[in-house]
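Anaerobic ribonucleoside triphosphate reductase
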Amino acid sequence: MSVDVEEKKNVKKPTYFIKRDGSKMRFASYKLEIIFDEMGLQKHKKTLIKEILKVIGRTDEVDAHEVHRAVISALNEAGYQTKALDYINVYKKNEEYWQDQTNPASRLERLQVKDPELVHENANKDSNVFNTQRDLTAGAVGKTLGLKMMPMHIAKAHLRGDIHYHDLDYTPWSPMTNCCLIDFKEMLTNGFKIGNAEVESPHSIQTATAQMAQIIANVASSQYGGCSANRVDELLAPFAKRNFEKHVVDAKDYIDDEDKLHEFAKKKTKKDIYDAMQGLEYEINTLFSSQGQTPFTTLGFGLGTSWIEREIQRAILQIRIKGLGREKRTAIFPKLVFTLKRDLNLKPEDPNYDIKELAVECATKRMYPDILMYDKIRELTGSFKVPMGCRSFLQGWKDENGKEVNSGRMNLGVVTLNLPRIAIESRGDKELFWKIFNEKMGICKEALVFKAKRVEQAIPENAPILYQYGAFGKRLKPGENVSTLFKNRRATISLGYIGLYEVGTAFYGPDWEKNKEAHDFTVEIVRQLKNNCVAWSDEYDYHFSVYSTPSESLTDRFCVLDTKRFGKIKDITDKEYYTNSFHYDVRKHPSPFEKLTFEEDYPKYASGGFIHYCEYPNLRQNPKALEAVWDWAYDKVGYLGTNTPIDHCFKCGFEGEFKPTARGFECPDCGNHDPKTCDCVKRTCGYLGNPLQRPMVHGRHAEIASREKNLFDGTGYNG
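Structure:
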């Protein structure tokens, strides 16, 4: 148990602690306990802390310098001169680290020598490409300046690894937004402007999809997160209908029979739909945003019932199954999200069941589509919509007229809490765990409010496509206040978390998944995150939401920092990574039913961002097995992804799962690992990625993956 020196007679503790940047917080004596525990002075910490409090407890407020001096004095007087010197040296090193991290020249030097921590931070950015290099250069400067812009105690909390201030290469230096649901309907209906071109409403589905691609490219360059198209089959149907009507008119001079006329027009329209959707797939995969990467794009579909809407659904799936190019490679983008709905496509007697069968086939061959459960998503988030990017969900929201609005809304950013560190610091003491947790909540709140306030400093002219031409729904005039699009809880801002498995392990051991007390404790942690977000939403009028962070580099970063500080702790830091959000321990191999049963309680409190994955063997010959999981999961989880081996070697013809080795993933039959002659696709960042083209995955991550097959369970990008 923690040392409650605060209740010792004749020992007064200060009420407030003034940090070096002038910010004020409640004084927390447990931090002194942690300092002495890390020095190996557990047996003497009661006496040392008592002496420190005698010195600093004379006033209600004490500043950091006073505490620093008091710690050194107490150590010296107790005969621990060497420990005092160590403490002073650690402080000096921390100050040197701060200066280094806020020095643009230092970071640019690291980038120049291709420091892996910098050049491979994002699995979908190829650092060999010029425009990616330019983005990395700008990001290196942006990070150092951004750290100086934010309150110092928040910046230092980020550098220490207490929290992670996401997308520091873009924000706060730039007042950019994160991810969004683009209001394509508004833009395609009313027209828009990109660059010098005034674009009118399209008159065909081919033009509509071409315009969508241009909108996506421009939006992706004006924000730093992913973008999504909601209900794209229903969105594009009116434009395909114009194709049909045109074909009817054109054929009237040649076909007298009404039935044959409509049959001909329908056939031509189906071909138009296929060509348009194929063009969209190719355009998205050949686009590069200003960030030096293909735009992180998600298409949601599956609820349309007209023949045109069904045909759009069918085309999306058929094109993905076919693959890209002569070699029929798996398309990385857009991410496909198919909706299951009771009485529409769930059972064989439902009218769209045939589309569901095609979706199952597509998932066995291309991993996408992921699945949204219509009724569960409405229950969890308050309305139905696809995620923004890979997993960030808007909450149900109505405008001043009582109309439900989803498209045209956005997320303002993410700050993630390092939960395993809190568990390590509390050393089995749950009371201390909650003390530290509550203090870190205060830091997260300040960081998120700072993010939101910074985004409000944008002007419409900074990103015309977003603010002036409809991507964010409302069209603002130059100089208007952009906060009207964020306040009244129209936008979300996200409190992320990582490492519930490690927290459970710290208190209950590594096999706690079936321990109800342990499970309830970890659920309570997410519930408390939610409670904080509700309180902050009431205070600031943004929609603060709990976000199950996809943590590609963060799984490493937090663990590396904690290993340096606390050493190798079995089943926590010794794995060399932390587990994403609420996911089951990736070293174990539960059935899909066991995994989903374990995970289903968490999204109730983390409705601002979540996804479940299940790991399968090769399912191409057994699609009914995947369908059985989808059906079973319908009333249990809202958002479900498929991890199944879909690698293909063009040299020997192997299809299945490539073998992870120290030099990267390679064909198990012929050893081929040349990205030009094989197609190796894994889930990274909630999206798919090709690890053969990413040196980070080529090396250390491939080695880890050889032990932890499902390491890439929900890793990466913050969308």
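The radius of gyration is 27 Å.
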